[in-house]
């Protein structure tokens, strides 16, 4: 027996209860338990005692793990102290079952000799050591030593059905008086470093040898107190093949026959002509240390050798060719350790499917959702000798009823009745696995190329295809590996590449987005007078009195009671956009728009895109008020004749609001802000975004309020992605957030007003704020005064019955009520046939009119009777369902969990196990008592919390046990992350509900219907990214410190909380990781972009609690997908390129607009005709002013319909030109007249040349002449005019001297110091 087998068989672990395995959370807690001494009057002097330690689950009455046994120790008495047996042994273990019912059980065993020389063991008592407290945290290790009280008997008493948890409630357990065990229990974090070597729930002593660990230092014998790992060795397995005997075909044929027979036996069916086929053959390869897999095994796909060499076979090939399973790649094992207990485990498994679903192996990946049958057929273990270097290994495969490391049932081995021809030896009767092994050396610094891989099938000891010769035939690609063919016939070891030990990192950007509050309301009286004189419409209250402009109310003085007690329940919200002006600090990089339009959304009203507004300057306001009035533009391009500005009104009254929605609207005004985007009306480029708080719209008992706001319209520019490479990526603290450039483009003048109106309709009663939904009671559901309902004819209730009973006489014919779907063709045909049949019955028979009328009445009565019999069962079921149905209305806000409890009562006189079924993924039952307790603390609920209340079935549906007539509270939460209005409306119409079914009867005993009313959510920051189309946007955003977030709690105990994120789009990867205390936390986003010019909108919610109860921040993201154009250029030099424009089905008159017209020139620069389905070139000239990477946006717009035709993203990679001369001057700061300077330039050519002058800072430097001509070898003096600066500092100004082709000749640098 090998060392691996001895370690493996000696440390088999009993798994915990299956229900416990399903509900455990990730992460494991490590413990160090020291059993010091046993003392008490129950000990006998001189007797030998042993301690045994096991893990126990009190909820499911189950021992798990493996029992640890101490050495035998004799008890000694030293009067007056009682007898004591000293152990002083340390036990280590870790478990992820962090639940209060998990405990360690200590058993005291006395040993005595028997007459035959053996020993007899007698259990003297036991004790329970709790591992986790009530909150599922590890027991407080503050106390160094603890005394464990012991109970009489054996710990097997814990398996008795009358055992109760906790132990103190058990009257059957008796405490051993004056006896205890002294112990110490602490968490042991150093053990986390060897979790990959030590299985969970395995109790080991510090004196035991753990494969993969170095011995303890010096005199210390405890190697687990500070464990040290052995150095791993990298192994490579190549040319791997598996042979199954007597042959691959016979083995698989026998296996398929047995599986098909088993399938028919389980189905109790006769042979149906269907069968079982092999879909895939997999090989799991992993390193095992005798205790567990060091890493998750690698999975590779094996293919029959015949498929690999198909087409290359010849008669000269040997008989054994094609009877092996081969691996077309090589396996890299980096976790091997030179220890005799370390081994490489191979597990061969087959994937089967019905022969009707069988497909070609090489082209059919097995999806996770498929119903394929997976069976393990063979396994092998190999303990390598890593010092032997390269070698070829042949291992026998194992199977049948023997314990293996994969913990699965394995197909039986061949029977012993086979002939010697079929079985070639006892050691290979189950098959062999053959491979070539090599360790990490110089030749493996570069791994195998995927171009040429040898076939490991052999014949007569010679390789079928030699290493480095030949190539694979073209094959399909499976889901685990690909056949990467290469035309190179002779690969060398030097051509093989190996990944370096680092990964590129996304440089995080700072979380600088648009925030509300950047508004200014303190305008001068002169500015207000000029805006008033412009003729904006007056805002009148409900008494037709003009509303004066007032200052916003202090947020601290806001009172919700004043809003609820207001007699004017109607709110007329008025948004008046007045003017838009350029900011004084705005640079000259972008042109100022002539027209603009705005986009925003108020409350739950539809999103608004305003008409185009012309910016009109006034003579008086151009200087005093740096803003241009907004005038509406008609569809024909002319200015509107009405008053200036744009005024929008929203009427929010009880007729618009749902019952109980009034307080949610008040909350919206108090907490939310209005996000406004300003767009250029001609180029359709974003000018900037603004946000204004809506709190000034709260009237607080006043008849009307009106406030004026001057909003900063800002735009945010992000640098292109930069990948950190080399050592900088690995250096601690190397990452720094890139500076996000936020530029204030202008200021938007906005007037907000709220005019109160009296309403005849009183608002509905607000819904109950209780978190408990009472169960419906059939008797109590009828009001005290009874139900009053007007009796109606059956024909008025059902349209089909009305059509059947319709009288055919023209004077008595009545139009039946409309029925949904009655207009369909099939229904019309049936009604026409019925009318024809009745006409024939009325016309024939020679009956008297009286008899015909009586027959018609009898027929109608029969129809009514048949109708009543048909709908009786359905009506009774509907009424009974209504009697057990309760309704709960939740106001769903994005990312916020709505918690409530449903009082469920067992109406029967017998106990029942009830199954809870929920039909909507956003409504769920809270199963974890810690989450339940968390939500009750948030909502101040006083109802009790019950531990271990639910049992999960195999289909993960919860069940709850109810005693007769018992009432329990089922905790629910509704949480939506969908921000799509269409999805929200669908949810409202669907009304998520759940039903409760007893297991025995299968009929519902209670139904809860949840009515969802979506509410707008807060947007704290807005981010807008531009990215190439049909590519992934990968961004890392650095979160601000948690205490700076507006919604973060104050004085949170335990230091910095961990942050969690969720995205509104499930197709977007959004995650964050806690990097440790004191380290910043980043959010990683991976978004798939669509085709140009698509805009994707989504939200990210940020939480500081692990249960995601309510977000502290909600961020809004826009992703603009544009066509990408990469440009490599030099600063100050013109680079020319062209774009190919493709026409649409209709001819259009288009014009190209750019975000940086000073740096990007277009030709033609005006409007031109784009022919239908034609092709036309658009010529571009790029002259960037600064070096580095940046984006420039280009839009092609239909100037007649103002629609976006195409959009491009120009990604500039700009180099800095070579600076030939440098100058430095000092100028006074704080304004002034500026300064004139001169520099000289010498023409280095013998002939006259024409030069052009450019600068990167035209706002600070102007030239006397933009171009000059100088003779060969002559000197020219260039006149410079430096503009004054408002502040002190330094500026570097570049002067580019370009030739007649606009290529850079020289660049001067002038350093200007403003003092």
From TrEMBL:
Residues 760-787 are annotated as: Disordered. Residues 822-883 form the NPHP4 SK-like domain. One of its GO terms (biological process) is protein localization to ciliary transition zone. Pfam families: Ig_NPH4_3rd (PF26015), Ig_NPHP4_1st (PF26190), Ig_NPHP4_2nd (PF26189), Ig_NPHP4_4th (PF26187), NPHP4_C2_3rd (PF26186), NPHP4_SK (PF26173). InterPro entries: Ig_NPHP4_1st, Ig_NPHP4_2nd, Ig_NPHP4_3rd, Ig_NPHP4_4th, NPHP4, NPHP4_C2-like, NPHP4_SK. Residues 526-757 form the NPHP4 C2-like domain. One of its GO terms (cellular component) is ciliary transition zone. Residues 888-986, 1023-1120, 1132-1215, 1220-1315 form the NPHP4 Ig-like domain. It comes from the Eukaryota. PANTHER family: NEPHROCYSTIN-4 (PTHR31043:SF3). This is Nephrocystin 4. It comes from Accipiter nisus.
């Amino acid at each position: 027996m090998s060392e691996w087998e001895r370690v493996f068989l000696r440390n088999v672990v009993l798994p915990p209860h299956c229900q416990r395995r399903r509900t455990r959370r990730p992460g494991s807690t490590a413990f160090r338990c020291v059993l010091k001494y046993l003392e008490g009057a129950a000990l006998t002097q001189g007797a030998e005692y042993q301690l045994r330690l096991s893990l126990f689950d009190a909820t499911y009455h189950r021992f798990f793990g493996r029992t640890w046994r101490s050495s035998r120790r004799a008890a000694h008495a030293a009067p007056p102290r009682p007898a004591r047996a000293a152990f002083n042994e340390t036990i280590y273990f870790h478990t992820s079952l962090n639940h209060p019912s998990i405990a360690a059980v200590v058993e005291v065993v006395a040993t005595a000799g028997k007459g035959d020389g053996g020993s007899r063991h007698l259990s003297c008592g036991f004790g329970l050591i709790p591992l986790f407290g009530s909150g599922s945290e590890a027991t407080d290790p503050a106390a160094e030593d603890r005394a464990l009280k012991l109970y009489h008997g054996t710990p097997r008493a814990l398996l008795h059905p009358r055992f109760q948890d906790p132990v103190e409630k058990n009257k059957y357990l008796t405490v051993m008086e004056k006896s205890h065990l002294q112990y110490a229990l602490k968490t042991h974090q150093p053990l986390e470093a060897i979790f990959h070597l030590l299985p969970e729930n395995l109790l080991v002593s510090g004196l035991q040898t753990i494969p993969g660990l170095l011995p303890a230092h010096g005199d210390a014998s405890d190697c687990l107190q500070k464990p040290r790992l052995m150095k791993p060795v990298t192994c490579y397995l190549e040319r791997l093949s598996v042979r199954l005997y007597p042959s691959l075909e016979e083995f698989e044929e026998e296996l398929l026959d047995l599986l098909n027979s088993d399938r028919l036996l389980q189905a109790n069916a006769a042979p149906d002509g269907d069968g079982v086929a092999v879909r895939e053959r997999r090989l799991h390869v992993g390193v095992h240390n005798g205790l567990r897999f060091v890493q998750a095994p690698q999975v590779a796909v094996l293919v029959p050798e015949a498929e690999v060499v198909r087409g290359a076979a010849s008669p000269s090939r040997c008989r054994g060719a094609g009877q092996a399973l081969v691996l077309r790649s090589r396996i890299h094992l980096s976790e091997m350790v030179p220890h005799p207990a370390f081994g490489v485990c191979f597990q061969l498994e087959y994937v089967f499917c019905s022969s009707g679903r069988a497909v070609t192996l090489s082209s059919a990946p097995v999806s996770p959702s498929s119903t394929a049958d997976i069976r393990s057929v063979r396994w092998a273990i190999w303990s390598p000798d890593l010092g032997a270097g390269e070698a070829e290994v042949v291992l026998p495969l194992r199977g049948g009823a023997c314990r293996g490391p994969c913990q699965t049932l394995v197909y039986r081995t061949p029977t012993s009745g086979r002939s010697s021809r079929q079985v070639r030896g006892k050691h290979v009767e189950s098959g062999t696995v053959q491979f070539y092994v090599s360790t990490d050396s110089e030749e493996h610094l570069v791994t195998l190329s995927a171009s040429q891989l040898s076939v490991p099938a052999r014949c007569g000891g010679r390789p079928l295809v030699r290493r480095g010769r030949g190539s694979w035939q073209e094959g399909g690609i499976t889901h685990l590996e690909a056949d990467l063919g290469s035309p190179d016939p002779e690969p060398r070891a030097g051509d093989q590449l190996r990944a370096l030990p680092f990964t590129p990192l996304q440089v995080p950007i700072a979380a600088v987005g648009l925030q509300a509050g950047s508004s200014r309301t303190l305008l001068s009286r002169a500015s207000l007078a000029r805006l008033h004189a412009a003729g904006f419409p007056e805002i009148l209250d409900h008494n037709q009195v003009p509303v004066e402009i007032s200052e916003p109310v202090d947020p601290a003085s806001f009172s919700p009671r004043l809003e609820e007690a207001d007699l004017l329940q109607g709110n007329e919200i008025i948004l008046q956009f007045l003017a838009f002006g350029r900011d004084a600090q705005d640079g000259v990089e972008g042109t100022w728009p002539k027209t603009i339009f705005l986009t925003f959304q108020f409350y739950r009203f539809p999103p608004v895109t305003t008409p185009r507004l012309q910016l009109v300057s006034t003579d008086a306001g151009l200087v005093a008020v740096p803003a241009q009035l907004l005038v509406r533009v008609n569809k024909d391009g002319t200015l509107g004749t009405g008053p200036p500005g744009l005024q929008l009104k929203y009427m929010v009254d009880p007729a618009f609001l749902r019952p109980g929605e009034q307080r949610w609207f008040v909350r919206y005004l108090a907490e939310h802000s209005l996000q406004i985007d300003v767009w250029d009306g001609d180029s359709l480029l974003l000018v900037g975004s603004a946000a204004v708080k809506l709190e000034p719209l709260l009237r607080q008992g006043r008849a009307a309020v009106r406030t004026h706001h001057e909003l900063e319209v800002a735009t945010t520019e992000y640098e292109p992605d930069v990948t950190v490479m080399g050592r900088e990526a690995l250096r601690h603290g190397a990452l720094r957030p890139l500076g996000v450039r936020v530029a204030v483009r202008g200021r938007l003048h906005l007037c907000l007003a709220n005019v109160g109106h009296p309403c005849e309709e009183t608002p509905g009663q607000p819904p109950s704020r209780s978190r408990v939904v009472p169960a419906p009671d059939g008797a109590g559901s009828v009001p005290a005064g009874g139900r009053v309902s007007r009796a109606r004819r059956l024909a008025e209730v059902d349209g089909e019955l009305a059509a059947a009973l319709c009288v055919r006489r023209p004077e008595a014919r009545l139009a039946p009520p409309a029925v949904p779907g009655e207009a369909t063709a099939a229904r019309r045909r049936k009604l026409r046939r019925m009318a024809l049949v009745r006409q024939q019955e009325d016309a024939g028979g020679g009956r008297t009119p009286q008899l015909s009328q009586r027959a018609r009445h009898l027929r109608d009565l029969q129809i009514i009777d048949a109708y009543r019999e048909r709908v009786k069962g359905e009506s009774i079921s509907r009424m009974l369902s209504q009697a057990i149905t309760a309704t709960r209305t939740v106001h769903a806000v994005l990312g916020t969990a709505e918690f409530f409890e449903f009082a469920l009562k067992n109406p029967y006189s017998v106990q029942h196990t009830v199954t809870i079924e929920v039909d909507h993924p956003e409504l769920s039952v809270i199963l974890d008592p810690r989450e339940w307790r968390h939500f009750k603390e948030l909502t101040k609920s006083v109802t009790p919390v019950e531990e271990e209340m639910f049992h999960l079935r195999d289909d993960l549906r919860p069940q709850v046990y109810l005693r007769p007539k018992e009432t329990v509270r089922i905790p629910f939460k509704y949480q939506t992350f969908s921000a799509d209005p269409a999805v929200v409306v669908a949810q409202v119409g669907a009304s998520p509900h759940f039903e409760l079914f007893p297991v025995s009867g299968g009929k519902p005993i209670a139904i809860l219907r949840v009515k969802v009313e979506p509410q707008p959510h807060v947007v704290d920051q807005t981010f807008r990214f531009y990215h190439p189309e049909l590519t992934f946007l990968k961004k890392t955003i650095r979160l601000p410190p948690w205490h700076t977030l507006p919604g973060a709690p104050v004085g949170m105990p335990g230091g910095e909380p961990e942050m969690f994120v969720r995205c509104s789009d499930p197709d977007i990867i959004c995650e964050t990781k806690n990097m440790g205390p004191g380290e910043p936390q980043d959010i990683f986003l991976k978004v798939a972009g669509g085709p140009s010019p698509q805009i994707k909108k989504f939200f990210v919610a940020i939480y500081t609690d692990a249960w995601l109860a309510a977000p502290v921040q909600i961020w809004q993201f826009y992703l603009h997908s544009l066509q990408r154009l990469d440009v490599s250029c030099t600063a100050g030099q013109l680079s020319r390129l062209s774009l190919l424009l493709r026409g649409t089905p209709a001819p259009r008159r288009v014009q190209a607009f750019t975000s940086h017209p000073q740096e990007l020139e277009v030709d033609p620069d005006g409007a031109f005709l784009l022919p239908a389905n034609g092709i036309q070139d658009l010529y571009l000239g790029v002259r960037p002013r600064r070096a580095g990477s940046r984006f420039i946006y280009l839009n092609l717009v239909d100037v007649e319909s103002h629609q976006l035709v195409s959009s491009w993203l120009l990604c500039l990679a700009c180099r800095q030109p070579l600076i030939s001369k440098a100058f430095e001057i000092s100028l006074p700061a704080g304004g002034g007249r500026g300064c004139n300077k001169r520099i000289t330039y010498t023409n280095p050519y013998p002939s006259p040349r024409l030069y052009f002058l450019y600068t990167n800072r035209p706002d600070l430097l102007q030239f006397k002449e933009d171009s000059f001509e100088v003779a060969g070898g002559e000197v020219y003096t260039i006149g410079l005019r430096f503009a004054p600066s408002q502040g002190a500092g330094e500026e570097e100004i570049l002067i580019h001297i370009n030739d007649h082709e606009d290529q850079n000749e020289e660049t001067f640098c002038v350093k200007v110091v403003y003092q």
